[in-house]
Amino acid sequence: MRYCIACRRQLPAKPVFKLENAPASAQDIPDETEVKADAGMELLLYQCAHCGLVQFDCPPVSYYRDVIRAGGFSETMTNLRRDQYRHLIETYHLEGKRFLEVGCGGGEFLGVLAGFPVKAYGMEHRQVLVDKARAAGLQVWREFPEAADQVFGKSEAGLEGPFDVFLSFNFLEHQPEPDIMLRAIYGNLSEGGMGLITVPALEYILEQGCYYELLRDHIAYYSFDTLRRLLERNGFAVLEEEMVNRDTISMVVKKLREGEWITPAASVQEALPDSLAEGYEITRGEIENLARDLERKGKRLAIWGASHQGFTLAATTVLGQAAEYMIDSAPFKQGRFAPASHLPIVAPEHFSRHPVDVVLIVAPGYTDEIAGIIRSRFGREVRILAVRTKHIEIMQEGAGWS
Question: What is this structure's pTM?
Fold first, then answer.
């Protein structure tokens, strides 16, 4: 029997969306010895009829306690965090307060916080990331919030709470027990403590119809309404909420006293729009048309972007059969294979030895940057395409396509 991870009520019998042959993980990228045992999986997406939370009915990935932050050092993300910190500290007069980032990775965002007049602490489950943060001079210890009565920092002398402010950046959507995590955080905050929390926005995925943004790593898909309800049920009042970076919900919260907890008003949950299924059909159809056109003209195709979007598109459409290889600039991905589709992942230099006629970019957020790299390194002869929302767009015509 299926139960909602947020309110523990029974989920409906029928999923709202089904994705077949989806990658079983966005981070466990198989190498040459592992690829034979790798297989895709069926992902069933449900919406709770009681609290409205959209979620997968499957166990979490094995590393859900660890923070994996590929874009932690990007200028865009660094500037966003700096602006959020400044607003939070100045608006609520939090100078000198104790800030705790729950799931701090290697301390990428804690390092930004260190530039403000507050005391910064972090907790992270993965030891190698704890070591990395400590090497950068940050006060971080190994721990994960998994019990409502947990006392944070108990094993680290001098780091015990309570803390005045908690931070959580795109971590809650990985959690199979988000209520337990929030109760643990609640118990380690001072009276009237604050919080800043972000999650990927369901609204963005539905609006764009980009089904390939769904991945098993994100077991829950929060909207403004469902995140607010979850926070209220677990002792927090939402003071501010906004969409940041086009696709992310950000909320500022305050801890309430036990007797002041908010009971969210009952509401009728509207059915999700058909944009996921519609987006899937449109994207799949355009990729099939592209594959037929390439075969007819005797042209070769490569993908650029060993991201979860690229993995899903390659596995759930004919893209995995039509492409020769998948390009990515990250050395740790090169020499491995895309989950489920098993396309080889190669460095950009691979193009010079095994050139293709068309490169399809599947890395949302980096499309224009990658297109510029292709033009400068591969020349004007190659045709550059990109998946944007649910469509394929031409970034460069290339030779011989008129």
Answer: 0.90
